[in-house]
UniProtKB/TrEMBL annotation:
Residues 3-124 form the MTTase N-terminal domain. This is tRNA-2-methylthio-N(6)-dimethylallyladenosine synthase. Its cofactor is [4Fe-4S] cluster. The keyword tRNA processing applies. NCBIfam families: miaB-methiolase, MiaB/RimO family radical SAM methylthiotransferase. PROSITE patterns: MTTASE_N, MTTASE_RADICAL, RADICAL_SAM, TRAM. The lineage of its organism: Bacteria, Pseudomonadati, Pseudomonadota, Alphaproteobacteria, Rhodospirillales. SUPFAM superfamilies: Radical SAM enzymes (SSF102114).
Amino acid sequence: MAKKLCIKTYGCQMNVYDSGRMADLLAPLGYATTEDAAEADLVILNTCHIREKAGEKVYSDVGRLRNLRAERVAAGGAPLTIAVAGCTAQAEGEEIMRRAPAVDLVVGPQAYHRLPELIARAHRSKGEALDTEFPAESKFDHLPQQSRVEGTAAFLTIQEGCDKFCTFCVVPYTRGAETSRPVAAVLAEAAHLARLGAQEITLLGQNVNAYHGEAPDGGAPWSLGRLAHALADVPGIARIRYTTSHPRDMDDELIAAHGTLPALMPFLHLPVQSGSDRILEAMNRRHTAADYRRLVERLRQARPDLALSSDFIVGFPGESEKEFQATLDLAAEIGFAQAYSFKYSPRPGTPASMMADSLSEEVKSERLARLQAVIADGQRRFNDSCIGRTMPVLFDRPGRHEGQLIGRSPYMQAVHAEVPAALSGRILDVTIESAHPNSLGGRLAADPAEAAA
Ligand code: SAH
Ligand code: SF4
Ligand code: F3S
């Protein structure tokens, strides 16, 4: 009988990618996916551990699933297997098993390929199904190919783990040491995704620009810049993005690629975290605010229409008002097209969690609000600056109104325009006429008949 699998995904794009791969892995075992936990035989919580709120989420979710299971069993229904995967699983696997006995199995991000065996083990005897090893074999060699692409965009993990050890961050502990997938494996997966309809590929890695994958000919490892050039030659792949980058790993080859490789989209997520050198040092980011400004300048020289997004943390231990002001200044000066900002959250086991001078929630909230106002202003300015420009838009979804399609600009903005449905899946030049907080509106630069030619 067909079984149903429900995966709830939290955290970053890497978890989204992993959830897809887990679904593909379990499909041959008879699991069809569902969005509704109530009708599932197996629920996988793919967790994120990055901030405290994210890490605690798993316990409330498990509580709800436990009740669901109890109700169902009482009504004579099928049992429900509860699995916890992802970064919280890796960081707190044993604690989860202890604190939440309703959980049947725990699997860390590097052990997903062993899921079928773990499920069988959990069904045989509870309490033995915990796998948070960092196995010597790579999960990528044991996972089936992706089975589908939604729309025209796909994620492709090329690098995992992190050796940077920023003092606030759990990722080096939850995802392990930095590893890169071989070039040949990446190119094969990209070609496969293109055959499934992907035109736009986002390369993923916790430190994606530290990529140094084994060369196809056994020569020196390839950098991300070189890989991007090879990916642009894969038939069907029109657009390449990558995330997340570390400023320290932005090498000359990659910067140059932004100028010479049209397929490389002019939108870059480049987290800076803070504009204060003292805080950057305490965070172990190993660059200064001036380094970051210079890097942005070089990128804009290579690609003048490059737009940037970033991540910020406010209220790092000991952050003074003046130091926070430096962050505001940097955010205003660079003018990010978009950015994420977070209140610092102390994470167990990280060096920053041991630092004194923690700030009150009030101060953190107040700083976050001020920073978010600057970021929102930058985003509005950027969207406004698009009015009057003509840019290529990849259309792949129906719009809200009849005759409309929605697509993505090079800068990841949603763009709606009057476009015949038959042109869905095409990249068309659009002249932007209106800007909204989270989207743009425009009209086809050429008449649709011409555009279709
Ligand atoms: N690998 C990426 C991002 C990792 S997590 C990078 O190096 O940029 C995504 C973002 O979460 C980080 O950029 C940071 O801004 C934020 N973050 C990480 N740890 C945090 C913590 N302890 N408290 C608050 N924000 C945090
Ligand atoms: Fe975390 Fe820093 Fe590594 Fe990014 S670079 S994953 S913030 S340790
Ligand atoms: Fe969260 Fe893990 Fe991603 S901690 S942000 S799911 S790498």
